[in-house]
Amino acid sequence: MALLEVRDLVVQYGQAVALDGVRLEVQPGELVTLVGPNGAGKTTLVKTLAGVLRPVRGTVQIHGRAGFVPEGRQLFSELSVEDNLLLGAWRVRSHRPPLDLVYEIFPQLRSMAHRRAGTLSGGQQQMVAVGRALMGDPQLLVVDELSLGLAPVVVKEIVQQITRIREKTNLALLLIEQNVRLAFAWCERAYVIEGGRIVAEGATKALAEQPAIYEAFLGGRGGAAQ
């Protein structure tokens, strides 16, 4: 059974259609990316998956625990790093939240546990955001714009740490990302969204070899892969 199943999803802002018949799925342990230009509907989909937006039609089914890393991190800047992390465990009742695991994965955060989250660098804040999502012991991690505003070396470190987690837990990933080079290098399968519709899907290697997708996202002038 798929961890995430989205079927014929339609979402509107007033009369404007933001998602039009979107279908996608993520299997347990799978690495999947959703890519597309600004305004294509990526963040609208994330908000719908998280229950922030309600669809006009269609269904979203999450079979298991999901953790979300929102665009822009959205931390509580006046709270400490550790308090931000613990907020991610509010639904965990059956066992102790995996705080030690988060500190093992992101050792920088242990020494910053009592600092206000708003004083951290962008990369450190993204680590907190990922750690907060992991505190709910998810089977599916949904990450919206992991690389936004971060130096490539910081993005590489976070990718490596999430990969370590996957090796231990068989965590599935849905990566919503404008940096298509990063997304295609990391993920096994992709959906391409434009104008609120899925216009292509398949193995990332095969999609990268399609001339239209290569030109638009991987080789084009000022493309999303920059």
Question: What can you tell me about this protein's structure?
Answer:
This protein is 35% helix and 27% strand. The strands form 2 sheets. It has a 6-stranded mixed beta sheet with strand order 5-6-7-3-8-9, with helices on both faces. The longest helix has 18 residues, at 152-169. It has helices at 42-49, 81-87, 99-105, 107-111, 122-134, 152-169, 180-186, 204-208, 211-218, and strands at residues 4-13, 16-26, 31-35, 57-62, 66-69, 140-144, 172-177, 189-194, 197-203. By secondary structure, the chain is of the alpha/beta class. It has a domain at 1-64 and 140-146 and 171-226: 3-Layer(aba) Sandwich (Rossmann fold), CATH 3.40.50.300. The protein contains 9 helices and 9 strands.
Task: Please give the structural blueprint.
Elements: E1 4-13, E2 16-26, E3 31-35, H1 42-49, E4 57-62, E5 66-69, H2 81-87, H3 99-105, H4 107-111, H5 122-134, E6 140-144, H6 152-169, E7 172-177, H7 180-186, E8 189-194, E9 197-203, H8 204-208, H9 211-218
Parallel strand pairs: 3-7, 3-8, 5-6, 6-7
Antiparallel strand pairs: 1-2, 1-4, 8-9
